[in-house]
Amino acid sequence: MARILAIDFGGKRTGIAVTDELQIIASGLTTVNTKELISFLKDYISKEKVELFLIGEPKQMDNTASESEVLIAAFIEKLKKAIPDMPLKRVDERFTSKMAFQTMIDSGLKKNQRKNKALIDEISATLILQSYLYAQ
Which residue range or ranges hold the YqgF/RNase H-like domain (predicted)? Predict the structure, then answer.
């Protein structure tokens, strides 16, 4: 089997999480400067076998798309051109940032450490990936 890679897309930073090769465990991988995201993904899939990209789909409480969806849609178009053979799926990412922050509190991180937005993005990507795995 190959890994599944989850993307919590952001205007400045993007959180990345991956599964193990058996697709059992979701782990945070890193946070990438969004301008470097496509080159990072190309490099990663040249070294690791990946079968699917999951991209977070931010929605409002009434199920409409959030304002950041415009940026994500543009990124997806670029991604499809850059890596055309990779399947991708969207995953509802409502509340992942709040859940990521709560995870940081629950794991005992100090207030200073909880201000690390890159870590929140990485944990959010992991939550997106976990929710997908649970649904399978």
Answer: 2-100
